[in-house]
Each structure stands twice: as structure tokens, then as C-alpha cells.
Amino acid sequence: MSKKLKMTLGALVIVAAMGYLMITSFSSSAGFQVSISDLVEKGSKFQDDYLLVEGKVLPETVVWDSTNIKVEFVVTDGVNQMPVLFNDVVPDNLDHEDGAEAILRGKYDHDGGIFRADSVETRCPSKYEAAED
């Protein structure tokens, strides 16, 4: 086998591997956005789907379990509420007194009626608003 052919085959294997990794990582983290009301009302429809859900955290519901490194809380869309379980460290501003906006990625457990998040991000608009005179 010539050196040029070996280099070409090696490059093709590398490109194919990179393509495979990109496709599998995008499909596992993509998910689609669903409202809390849709999950509460039609939860069985989304049972095995990877989802993105946004809602306002009810700060009085945040319970941190440092022994098992998990946090439980409830989010709302203003109409319905949904409990969330996240097995990781509490994100910043999650228990903000005005209720942080949470961006959740994970799966909805229809039978348990809980969203099992594997990613939780928060944004707190009031933190970035200009102070009033």
C-alpha cells in the first residue's frame, strides 16, 4: 500500500469518526422545547423524549440534599406547576427571592409526575436591571 493511500484512508477514518461524534452529540443534547402546561396536561406523549423546558422557580420549594447531592424544586409557567429533580450542585440564583427563571434539559417521568433534569441553568433578570432613582 502506498504512503499516499494510507494517508488518504487515515484522513477518511478521522473525518468519519468526527462526523459520527458530532451527530450523536447533537442528537442527544438537542431535545425540543415544551411548555410546563403541555407536560402536565399531555405528559405521556413526551415520556421518552429529551426536552427543554423553561419556567419560574418557586423559591420556597427549593430543597437541597447535600448528602445525596441533589436538589428538588417546583417550576411554574403561571398556569401549571411541575416538580423537578436535579442530581447535581444547586445552580446560582436558583432560590432567588423573586423566583429565578430556570432552563431545564432532561426527561419527564409521566408516571412519577416529575421532570428529571440533567441540566439546569438560571437567569435572574432583576439582577441585571438598572437601579431605580
The H-and-E topology, N to C, reads as: HEHEEEEEEH
Q: What is the name of the CATH topology of the largest domain?
A: OB fold (Dihydrolipoamide Acetyltransferase, E2P)
Ranges with pLDDT <50 over ≥5 residues?
none
Give the spatial strand order of the biggest sheet.
2-4-5-7-6
CATH superfamily of the largest domain: Nucleic acid-binding proteins
Percent of residues in helices comes to: 25-40%
**Shape type:** elongated
Total discrete domains: 2
The second-level CATH architecture of the largest domain is Beta Barrel
Structural class: alpha+beta
Fold and architecture overview:
With 133 residues, this protein is an alpha+beta fold. The protein has two domains: 1-30; 31-122, OB fold (Dihydrolipoamide Acetyltransferase, E2P). It contains three helices and seven strands, in the order αβαββββββα. A five-stranded mixed beta barrel has the order 2-4-5-7-6. The longest helix is centred in the N-terminal third of the chain and has 28 residues, at 3-30. The chain is elongated, with a radius of gyration of 21 Å.
Key terms:
single chain; about 130 residues; OB fold (Dihydrolipoamide Acetyltransferase, E2P); 5-stranded mixed barrel; 3 helices
Gist?
With 133 residues, the protein is α+β, with helices and mostly antiparallel strands. The chain has helices spanning 3-30, 36-42, 125-128; strands at residues 32-33, 51-57, 63-65, 70-76, 81-86, 101-109, 114-123.
